[in-house]
Amino acid sequence: MAKTGYVVSNGYVNINKMRELADRFKALFLKHCCDVEVVSTAEIYPVVQNDGSIDIKGLSRSDFILFWDKDVLLAQVLEKAGHRLYNSSKAIQICDNKIYTHNYLSGHNIKMPKTLPMPLVFEGSPYYNEKFLDTAEKEIGYPMIIKEAYGSFGKQVYLCNDRQQVNSLVKKLKYKPYLFQQFISESKGKDIRIFLVGGKVIASMLRENDKDFRANISIGGKMTAITPPDEYIDVAVKAADIIGLDYCGVDLLIGSGGPLLCEVNSNAHFKNIQLCSGIDVAEHFVKYIIGEAV
Ligand SMILES: Nc1ncnc2c1ncn2[C@@H]1O[C@H](COP(=O)(O)OP(=O)(O)O)[C@@H](O)[C@H]1O
Ligand SMILES: [Mg+2]
Fold it and tell me: How many domains does the chain have?
């Protein structure tokens, strides 16, 4: 019997871009003789019924779902209804929140910048805590990275040089979850992004920006396809394995003593890596899914 699969993407942001991405996946599945249906999260309604069963409106049974979104709660309920998601809801959840990523990967002998998450502050409660900021300052020092737990394209990552900058940022971020982190100065404007599919390294690039401390391409980082040193590959493979990712892009900072884990992207964009390396990472992902699902 032919396999039934879906590509699910977010139905509430930049619809055209998401559609283009989902259609690209569909074309790749077709290339490998597997038809899939493209569905947005605006068309899926998981209804928990009175008897406690889950009725997923907008999806029928499937052999796989390429879940290109970060709606963890939807992902969880789809898994509960018997769908196999690539990536899993758990893996997406761990990567989506940068505090969770560092917590989850701690204790596994993976080097990372010293990181201190802000405590949970309920909306309406005083969020400015002098004592906590004193501790962050003492533990981390300056310059200090402050990073929102949820963010991408470098947009929610800040560099603070003194308490005054920290204070004004803390007042701006208010109740948003964020973390304080040691700035790895040797890696200023530079990092290594490693793409993995099914635990195997598919392609890697060095990203460099001499005008900003963030290496993201969208901020002006320049990319070069590279074969990273083994120690970088080892960290990326280990992180992907611990989190249980089918597909990811691992960002590593280039420390004087070797790699430091910066973040793990469960939904790493693949256009740039194809441009600079010629490697179609998305096709590797599709082939992996079909191979597993068959
Ligand atoms: N602790 C750090 N020390 C030095 N540079 C950092 C640090 N954290 C992040 N950066 C820089 O900022 C960029 C964006 O940070 P990252 O955590 O990957 O967030 P995003 O999800 O927005 O890409 C990284 O690629 C890196 O260049
Ligand atoms: Mg990043």
Answer: 3
